[in-house]
Structure formats: C-alpha cells, structure tokens
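Deliverable D2.4 — example input (structure tokens):
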C-alpha cells in the first residue's frame, strides 16, 4: 500500500482565473462564452434548459456508456469476472456528451453517470479542438467506467520515443480541468478493462487463446484522458478535487501537468498514472496533492510515470515511480513508500533513506537540525521502507532523523542530491563516518523485468525468479551474480545517528530504529 502527500508551493500563473460562481448565469459569465451544465438525477440542464438528446448538439445526454460487459468469452477482452458489469447496471448511467470545443462549467450531482468529451476522430490534430472543464461544486459517481473521460481532443505532444524528453509544455493541450475556488468536487469512478477490436482478434491453432488483438477500449482511471491533460486551479487555489477510484485515480495516456488545486486521491492501484512507455511526463508545478493507494486492485504507486516524473515544487509523502527518471527542482518533498526509483536529477538537494525494517505509518517523522529545532516534519499514512527528503529548508548542516520520540540510528551508503552527482568536498565523508567501498556516485546496473515475468541481468542472462529456490533448512537462497540484494559497493557501514547535508548533496541512508 502506498500513500502520497505532495503539497506544492510554487505559484503558477493560470489561464481562465476567476471566483466561484453562485448561479449558472454567474458561472457562464465568469468564463467568457462558457456553457453551464447543471447535473441532477432529476434532469440535466444546459444554460438553464433541459439537455438535448440530439447527437448533433454541443451537449447531449444518452444511456450509452462504454463498459466491460460481463459473461463474455476470452475473445472479448482481457478482463476477468470481477471486471465485468451487467447491461442493466450500465444502462442506469447517464452520459453527458460534450462534442464541441469550449469551456464548460460543471456543477450539481449525478449519482450514476459520466461526463465524456469527444470532439471527433480527427480532433487530435486540430489545435482548436480544446475543451476546458471547470469543476464548480460537482459530484459524479460512475460504477462501471471512468466518471470523467476525454476521448478525442487536440494532442499537443508526440508519442515518438526517439524524440521524447522530460521537458514538455502542455499549455496548448486539448484536455483541461480547472478546480474552481471555494468549491469541493467529488469524482467517484471505476474503470474499463481492455476490450479487443472484434475484427482484430487472432487465435492459436487450437482456438483456445488469443495470440494477437488490437485494443478497442481500456480506461484504467476514475478521471481519465486519452490525450495530454492540464489540471489547474483558479487564482486563490482554494478549490478541492476528491477522487475515489476503484482502480487508478487520475490518468493520462500521454502527458499530465498539475499546476494547482487541492487534489486528494484514494485509489485501488496507482493514484496517478501516465502510461506511454518511455514518453509520458508527469509534471507537478503547483497545488496540494495527497494520494492514498489502498491496494485493493494492485500494488500501486502514488505517482507512476512510464516516462518521467518532474517535481518543480512541493512537499511529498509517499512512493513515486518513473521509468525514465525522477527530477526534483524545488519545493519540499517527503516521499515514503515500499519501492524506490532512484532520483536522477534536479536543482535541489535531497536525501534518501532505506529502512531495514518496515516503518509504521501514522507516526510523525521529524528532521531536526543540530540545535534541536525541527527542520521538517511529516506523518506518512502508510507503512514504508523508503523515505525521500528534499526541501529548500535543508541548508548546510548536521541533522538527525526521528520517528516520534525515537531517534533513528543511521548507516551511510551512497550520495544523492543535485542530480546524483559527485559527493561534496571531493568525496570526503563526514567526520567519524567510514565510507563504503567502491565509487558511491555510480548508479549500479540493475536487473530489468520482462513482460513474461523473467528478469534480464546486467550481463544479458535471462532467469526466471520462480526457479530460485530457498534452501530446505532456511536461510538466503543462492542468487545469480547481479540479481537481487545490494551491490557490494553500496553496502551500508554503521555510523553515528546523525548525518551531514551540504548545499550540494545529501546522503543515501540505510537505517533502522535504535534498540
């Protein structure tokens, strides 16, 4: 299980700023030319009139939600029995379709429904195919699919892995969300397991399994976009977005940029996911982000980017995962979790601690300066074995780490901070510290997982972890060289209970509670 809190302090100048509208007419005029949509189980209105059922209208309603139908055979899709829903359950949902560019102010409650944005199959290449959803006190629940979904709008980015970079600008993206000041918004959503295109399914010779098939639908998040998406706040940044997700929370198939708002996510799997392999960038520039992964549908991460994760400000408490690299450029970060992807760079020093035994959530973790003053303090909601700390408040000096009233005993490993570069002072360790053997600035090669469950070792050897047997009399199994454990040059050496942080870097710690 993973919990993540990211409280970002970077001020961002946003488009379309305003104050909370008290009526539909005020909402419409707050955003010039906006369309006001009031949701209700008793009837949905658009600019005060009953919503159309005509598919040619800019906004129309229908009972045609996309979902994973129960009782299908293996040629239908990859979903299991638990992923399926009945036609009756699906038909109870009202879909509010948005088919034209513009700004739409959403308010009211829809207890069984979805807001779906689709500007047509060629919209991804049209820079004018842009929709902004203003969440102005809305509550949407969907039990068979995402509660909010962008299907087709302008795609400002490219899925080309060869030209991919961590530095992306999503300002012109076609999918935009604004959390209105002074409002509390609730999105409760499910997901759609992978459904095959019927005419693309190829079977094995004996007809018992699918050997190849193209995707027709697959939407993992409660709040989902097939295109790059921006999430913004209004001027004061006081609006709240609560996402309760059966599976994943806030997803984009390409890039996602969070510029503001108070976003709280509780999810069964990843809290946030951007899923184009080697390309996607999750960028956090502002706002307050809190994520709790309860693990009901998978061992998810707080934030999982299949490309890069870039944090330009903030304060964080939980697990983060990125295939191409994590970069911390500012703000305050305290990320706690049970898996760790190495911090690859950024403009701000950081410290990474690994714990020999799992730490219990719900207890304050405190960083104290040499004079005993508290530099930073966090209370992780989850149990954890890794803690990443970065903050502009961490100036040069000596610090101790505490769990409640217990000081944590320390052991030093490799250097971190400022892009994982060389250690300060030419690699000279703090007084009294015995450095580990080897060059701690070198990032070790690690086994790479394969889709079939095997692992490729640094020397190219492929092994199946299932074949590794633990000795009958107990003890550690014999592992192939390069698989599992910590490389010899990264083994921790017991040192004092404090650590020194310079202005150019920190210390990788392997620590345990004092006896």
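Example output (designed residues):
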């Amino acid at each position: 299980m993973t919990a993540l809190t990211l409280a970002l302090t970077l001020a961002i100048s946003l488009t379309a700023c305003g104050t909370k509208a008290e009526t539909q007419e005020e909402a419409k005029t707050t955003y010039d030319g906006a369309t006001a949509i009031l949701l209700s189980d008793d009837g949905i209105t658009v600019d005060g009139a009953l919503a159309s059922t005509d598919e040619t209208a800019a906004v129309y309603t229908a009972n045609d939600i996309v979902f994973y139908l129960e009782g299908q055979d293996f040629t239908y899709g990859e979903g299991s029995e638990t992923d399926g829903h009945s036609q009756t359950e699906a038909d109870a949902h009202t879909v509010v379709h948005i088919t034209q560019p513009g700004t739409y102010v959403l308010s009211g409650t829809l207890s069984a429904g979805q807001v779906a944005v689709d500007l047509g199959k060629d919209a991804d290449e049209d820079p004018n195919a842009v929709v902004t959803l203003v969440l102005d006190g809305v509550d949407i629940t969907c039990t068979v699919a995402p509660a909010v979904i962008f299907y087709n709008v302008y795609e400002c980015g490219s899925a080309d892995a060869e030209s991919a970079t961590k530095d992306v600008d999503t300002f012109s993206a076609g999918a935009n969300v604004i959390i209105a000041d002074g409002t509390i918004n609730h999105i409760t959503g499910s997901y759609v397991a992978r459904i095959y295109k019927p005419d693309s399914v190829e079977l094995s010779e004996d007809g018992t399994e699918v050997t190849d098939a193209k995707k027709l639908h697959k939407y993992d998040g409660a709040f989902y976009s097939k295109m790059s998406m921006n999430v913004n706040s209004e001027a004061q940044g006081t609006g709240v977005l609560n996402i309760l997700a059966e599976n994943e929370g806030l997803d984009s198939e390409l890039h996602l940029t969070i510029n503001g708002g108070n976003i709280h996510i509780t999810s069964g799997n990843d809290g946030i996911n951007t899923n184009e392999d080697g390309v996607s960038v999750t960028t956090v520039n502002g706002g307050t982000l809190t994520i709790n992964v309860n693990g009901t549908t998978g061992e998810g991460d707080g934030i999982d980017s299949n490309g890069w994760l870039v944090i330009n400000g903030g304060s964080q408490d939980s697990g983060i995962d990125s295939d191409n690299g994590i970069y911390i450029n500012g703000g305050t970060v305290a990320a706690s979790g049970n898996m760790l992807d190495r911090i690859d760079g950024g403009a701000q020093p950081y410290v990474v601690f690994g714990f020999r035994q799992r730490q219990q959530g719900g207890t304050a973790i405190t960083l104290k300066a040499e004079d005993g003053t508290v530099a930073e303090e966090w209370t992780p909601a989850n149990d954890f074995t890794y803690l990443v700390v970065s903050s502009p408040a961490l100036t040069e000096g000596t610090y101790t780490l505490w769990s409640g009233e217990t000081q944590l005993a320390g052991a030093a490993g490799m250097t971190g901070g400022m892009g994982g570069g060389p250690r300060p002072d030419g690699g000279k360790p703090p007084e009294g510290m015995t450095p580990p053997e080897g060059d701690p600035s070198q990032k070790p090669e690690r086994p790479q997982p394969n889709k079939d469950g095997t692992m490729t070792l640094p020397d190219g050897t492929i092994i199946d972890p299932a074949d590794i047997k633990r000795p009958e009399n107990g003890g550690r199994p014999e592992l192939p060289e390069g698989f599992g454990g910590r490389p010899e040059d990264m083994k921790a050496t017991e040192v004092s209970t404090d650590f020194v942080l310079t202005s150019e870097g920190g210390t990788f710690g392997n620590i345990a509670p004092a006896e």
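The chain is about 0% helix and 40% strand.
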